[in-house]
């Protein structure tokens, strides 16, 4: 069971002169997978939540990329709101799973409480391991003495144990990071609850982790350099390597800050400072703006739509219902990825809605000259507007935050503010709480008792769906009333036109000079070929 086949897959830009952009996937036997699954269930039940820190959301139950994206955006938002500098270092490890030190892993597992017999079983999967490449044909087997198997169900958990102990040893004596004060009761919209010092809990956030993706946060360049040095030393001790080329940092200055572009070094090499970084598929900007993220989402959704052009959209054998279902599952998922944590302005919603309407009209073959309104397009596709979909997603995620345990990092950030810093005078920028309050009001949910209702998942799900449906219907009624008022205004303006007018029917010749005015006989201009256009309009006559 310690022999396996390796299939290589290209990742990103694939070149033929190296293996940097290739990833090996282990093809294991069924019997080995079953035994590994039994061991994994025991590890997850007894040790995973005790050993792995809360900042790690990779390969854990009830956690996903949205958790860490929300945390990163909330840290950016709160630093901007309270006028504090923010430094984020995005660390990339070179082939993290394939370079794990096995002797170090065998030393760690017994110390965290795994029984010796279970450690021995895990070692049997790795000691004397041989691999063979599958690349169109089978090659000769070779020995593998380092790393863990990508493709094995145990690999992610074993790496999480190693990575957690490494991060603990790196930052155990450090007080650098982002300090927040939070209180999960008293209402999220009531900021005065955080003034009660005896009821507020302090927490220090130094890292955001998802599998081997690591983001380190600090308020100053000195603190970030200290954290980077500690992490660099720890990775070398545990046999891992930081990729200097792919490790980048993002600096979000406070308003009026005089800080220059930071120069963070690892192993004596200065890291690249960028204005935006793609973290777990979401674009984070140094200005805390969602402009680039919205553009990226539209581009990715457009690419998803284009890949299905011939197979789905142009297939006349598929019904409109089937095409719309595929659109919702594939294109809309790419368009609204991570939307739960967005704080959108009207211009962002307009861009998303334009793309939404454009795709639906193409699917249903509705042209502009058919004069079909956006509301009728949504009704025919049996879907909702982007605004309603965003509202529903945010309410669903907010209810999930309320039901989290108090030790969860997303919930702590949701109910928190920075321990340092102050808000500037004037109207603040739009916050996640502001959009949440607006979403609650749109769905006619009381802002005072919404957290009590959200604690019951079934009730909250029903309430948000009914509220979103009512919000969509209210928008459609408002659109119909506005359209009726516009048509009524047009008719009233037409009835008030003075009676001193005639109707002219003009036949235009494109190669002739324009003719102005009106005569008793409509002018007709003749060419070798004739383009006859009849224009019916009101022409006012001078008294």
From TrEMBL:
<dbReference type="InterPro" id="IPR043502">
    <property type="entry name" value="DNA/RNA_pol_sf"/>
</dbReference>
<dbReference type="InterPro" id="IPR000477">
    <property type="entry name" value="RT_dom"/>
</dbReference>
<dbReference type="Pfam" id="PF00078">
    <property type="entry name" value="RVT_1"/>
</dbReference>
<keyword id="KW-0548">Nucleotidyltransferase</keyword>
<feature type="region of interest" description="Disordered">
    <location>
        <begin position="471"/>
        <end position="495"/>
    </location>
</feature>
<dbReference type="GO" id="GO:0003964">
    <property type="term" value="F:RNA-directed DNA polymerase activity"/>
</dbReference>
<keyword id="KW-0695">RNA-directed DNA polymerase</keyword>
<keyword id="KW-0808">Transferase</keyword>
<protein>
    <submittedName>
        <fullName>RNA-directed DNA polymerase from mobile element jockey</fullName>
    </submittedName>
</protein>
<feature type="domain" description="Reverse transcriptase">
    <location>
        <begin position="1"/>
        <end position="284"/>
    </location>
</feature>
